[in-house]
Automatic annotation (TrEMBL):
Family: Belongs to the glutaredoxin family.
Domain of life: Bacteria
Gene3D superfamilies reported for this sequence: Glutaredoxin (3.40.30.10)
The protein's name in its UniProt record: Glutaredoxin-like protein NrdH
Keywords from the UniProt entry: Disulfide bond, Electron transport, Redox-active center, Transport
Domain Glutaredoxin: 5-56
PROSITE patterns attached to this UniProt entry: GLUTAREDOXIN_2
Biological function: Electron transport system for the ribonucleotide reductase system NrdEF.
Keyword match Electron transport: yes
């Protein structure tokens, strides 16, 4: 299993859907909420992301609610 990190923000529907998907499929993850931890905003911008959620694993990273990509992490 990949070491999975999800970057979220308050009021983000896609963030909640991503978290729900991961929880329902028993995929462990670490969450960083950029509203509560603003130090991650610059990190995400440096990586080229301008929207949340951002999902990072050891071999893949993407943004948005992407069930197709999330399913691959469950394997």
């Amino acid at each position: 299993m990949n070491n999975l990190t999800v970057y979220t923000k308050n009021g983000c529907v896609q963030c909640r859907m991503t978290e729900r998907f991961l929880n329902e499929h028993n995929i462990p993850f670490t969450e960083h909420n950029i509203d509560q931890e603003p130090e991650y905003v610059d990190y995400l911008k440096e990586k080229g992301y301008q929207a949340t959620p951002v999902v990072e694993a050891s071999n893949v990273s993407f943004f948005g609610f992407r069930p197709d990509q999330l399913r691959q992490l469950a394997v």
